[in-house]
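Hi there,

I know you've been waiting on this one. I reran it after we fixed the sequence typo, so this is the corrected version. Both the input and the resulting structure follow.
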Amino acid sequence: MNKGRDQKPHIGIFGRRNNGKSSFINTLVGQEVSIVSERSGTTTDPVKKSIEIFGIGPVIMVDTAGIDDTGELGEKRVKKTLQVLATIDCAILIIANNQFGTFELNLIRDFKTHELPFIIVHNKSDLQPLSVNTRQQIKDHTSSDLIDFSTLRPVNMDEVIDALKKNIPETSYVNRSLIGDLISEGDYVLLVTPIDSEAPEGRMILPQQMAIRDVLDNHCICIVLRETELKHFFETSNITPRLVITDSQAFGDIKGIVPEDVPLTSFSIVFSRLKGDFDNYIKGAEKISRLKDGDNVMIMESCTHRISCEDIGRTKLPAWLQKFTGKKLNFTIISGMTDVPENLTDYSLLIQCGGCMFTRKQILNRLKPFTNNAVSITNYGMAIAYMNGIFERALQPFFLDNNHLNDHK
């Protein structure tokens, strides 16, 4: 399973074999975290390294195989290297020995296709300085930062760090509040957290943990209870929560318990605003009512986990969708970073989970091929709210008025 650490900004290291990519990572972090060898092709599959970069904070460095790898196995390694582009926030292209040609140009083209900021590091510059001709070739194709470097004499490490700080999108490492704009200091926030067979033993799941911390960070009062105690809470306490956030699958049970004048939404919807394509999720939800017999629906869950009979993505959502629509639907389940099918236009709807395990960039890159192919997309929480008849209510906390909400539909 992906860990919470994968939400840190991801930096990919790319370049030809034996250009010193792994040595560069070791020099950057100040310790040997990547295997270094004079033999070409030591790095095979992309390898993640969690490190700390002063001025940026914790990041995930992704060490990749050489883009010039050859043979049948080499082609597979290059394919895996290129797949990394959809998962990272910034790239470092390592060149050496004044080599700058088709491999680098193709990679730069792919960077631009993925709207990926990048810097170029000319490694081993102590052995062979960057020539005027190579420098001009690079300038002819990109205006990205170009830095001379030596892993043996890293005297300009600050220049590399400054270039990374300039190029890594601030949104990837500056933590945004989940609900800070919806609540004010001293407010009560009620979190409804059902516990079923999917709940981990003895602890809260990540969205619940992050919501609790966000409530506390905004100097509010956090109340956490199960859906079975919710009615008792409203009957016996004099507290009117500023906001109620529930697990989406409890919408059906609690929509009649939470007073209409109390704002209500779900963890999944909250995360969809932070991590996903919020506006297109809203627009795509109504596609549920237009599904027809035989339509293909893809359900995309960002984490991989043990499957149970109460699994929301694999069991409950498909059952609810077929009951709500009265149609016979075909479902495809995609977990983690599994490749999506090529025939995207065969799908009528994609339903994406909240995405708490992944970065915003990773989620958006996963969604982009679907929106580019005019496939409707929505989110677990929005789909469940829609099928429970409380779609607008579940979205209302994020909008000042109904007209503003209608503008997004």
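Quick highlight: The CA atoms of residues 132 and 224 lie 64 Å apart.

Best,
R. S.
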